[in-house]
Write a structure and sequence with these properties.
Elements: H1 11-19, H2 23-30, H3 35-40, H4 46-49, E1 58-62, H5 64-71, H6 77-94, E2 102-106, H7 114-126, E3 131-135, E4 167-171, H8 177-186, E5 192-196, E6 203-207, E7 215-219, E8 226-230, E9 236-241, E10 245-250, E11 256-261, H9 264-269, E12 281-288, E13 307-315, H10 324-328, E14 335-343, E15 364-368, H11 374-386, E16 392-396, H12 412-423, E17 434-437
Domain At1g61320/AtMIF1 LRR: 157-394
InterPro entries: At1g61320/At1g61330-like, F-box-like_dom_sf, F-box_AtFBL13-like, LRR_At1g61320_AtMIF1, LRR_dom_sf
Protein name: At1g61320/AtMIF1 LRR domain-containing protein
């Protein structure tokens, strides 16, 4: 007897079935879409037209292309900012949902727009927002005292709506250490805290046996002096700045560290020495001065380190050879990245030969900012000769600060010289390895 085959529902039947679902389920489905996709759903039917205003997903107001055009003087800041403000206000006026997953504003704003931005923050908090990000990074000019100040008065007393907050990201915004500590005390679900370029943070105490905090990065905060950390769930810790007194008292789950600034080894790596063997990823910002000899302590074995990245600023006459012991201290290293920003003047010097140190696990190398001079050639040759099972090396001969911007390929002549030097490295490739010059 032949088995009967049920016909598959048509697109129209499927659409009708979906429309019969309860409104709360349909609204939940909308939360998995972008705001633009949710708005477009209004064309499906009269019912969908009235559902999208209850969108509760991610409100991501970001316009990087316009910001690049403003920086390149192709568009006017005042005109584009007014367009941006109208767009945000129009959307917020239409939304009627009771909660929100994410609220993200990325545009150049300063204290002149405080009332407006305070209103946006109030809106997000009133919706029980889970992830809040304000990125007011300037196009070029330094904002200084004109930076927007996060509305401290809103949170000086307990606000029940912030208890839903899981992630807080603030860039180029005045915020104090006291307010950040208040958030940590009053946001029991907070797992991610990222603050960059704030001038108000001086001291910060991250302390609590019940903290859920997994990700803590404080970057380029010029007045920052000291930090204490007792965070049982912390997995990623970033600290980039000047001389910062660092005390990591308890972080048993720490896996990822990003450290940089004035003598990062002395002021940050050494206080983290108890946790170095458990790290899986380490990013180090280093400035190599022609006036200060680079000295690293003898590294204990970085037993679990799989990914090492250096972000180096150095003059052409300097050498990265002094950093090699860090590579050799990681026997299971699989991926190595270098971002090299070099300073003039260019000086000729002979290549220094470095004794190879066989590494059986390093498979992936990327060098951004390759200039094809002794400072990067001698390190690259060392890596090619030591990584006996290397699979791929990627060389990007462009300024790391410009990669991904409209000005990435401006220095054509210098890039061409670097590409020529990179091609000469093919003779050093281990068998089976691939060299990509991007």
């Amino acid at each position: 007897m032949e088995k009967s085959v049920l016909p598959l529902p048509s697109d129209k039947d499927l659409k009708d079935l979906i429309c019969q679902l309860p409104d709360d389920i349909l609204v939940h489905m909308l939360s998995f879409l972008t705001l633009e996709e949710a708005v477009r759903s209004s064309v499906l039917s009269h019912k969908w037209k009235h559902l999208w205003p209850f969108f509760s997903g991610s409100l991501n107001f970001d316009d990087p292309d316009t910001m690049w055009d403003i920086a390149d003087k192709k568009k006017k800041m005042e005109f584009e900012r007014n367009k941006f403000i109208k767009r945000v206000n129009r959307i917020l006026k239409l939304l009627r949902g009771s909660n929100l997953d994410e609220f993200r504003i990325c545009f150049e704003f300063n204290k002149d727009f405080k009332d407006l931005i305070d209103g946006w923050v109030d809106f997000a908090i009133s919706k029980g927002v889970k992830r809040l990000e304000l990125d007011f990074s300037p196009t070029w000019a330094y904002l200084g005292p004109k930076r927007y100040t996060f509305p401290h008065d809103r949170f000086s007393v307990g606000v029940s709506c912030i208890k839903s907050l899981t992630s807080l990201t603030l860039l180029y915004i005045h915020v104090t250490g006291e307010l950040l500590e208040h958030f940590l005390s009053n946001c029991p679900l907070l797992e991610r805290l990222y603050v960059s370029d704030s001038e108000d943070i001086v001291n910060l105490k991250i302390w609590g046996s019940t903290l859920r905090l997994k990700y803590l990065h404080i970057i380029h905060c010029s007045q920052f002096k000291s930090i204490e950390v007792f965070a049982p769930n912390l997995e990623s810790f970033g600290l980039v700045g000047g001389i910062i007194e660092t005390h990591v008292n308890y972080a048993p789950r720490l896996l990822d560290v990003h450290i940089g600034g004035c003598e990062p080894v002395k002021y940050a790596i050494c206080p983290l020495s108890n946790y170095l063997p458990q790290l899986q990823s380490l990013v180090l910002n280093i400035y190599i001065s022609p006036y200060v000899k680079l000295e690293l302590p003898k590294f204990q074995t970085l037993t679990n380190l799989r990914h090492l990245k250096w972000k180096v600023i150095a003059s052409d006459a300097e050498s990265l050879i002094g950093l090699i012991p860090m590579i050799e201290a990681a026997p299971l290293l699989q991926k190595f990245n270098l971002e090299l920003s070099w300073c003039k003047p260019l000086k000729k010097r002979e290549l220094r030969k470095v004794k190879k140190h066989p590494n059986k696990h390093l498979k992936d190398v990327e060098i951004v900012g390759f200039v094809g001079r002794p400072i990067d050639i001698e390190l690259t040759i060392y890596l090619l000769e030591s990584a006996i099972k290397l699979e791929k090396i990627v060389i990007i001969p462009r300024n790391p600060a410009l990669v991904g911007t409209p000005w990435e390929f401006d220095e054509i002549e210098k890039n061409e010289r670097a590409i020529k030097a990179a091609k000469q490295l093919k003779k050093n490739l281990p068998l089976g390895a691939e060299l990509l010059i991007l």
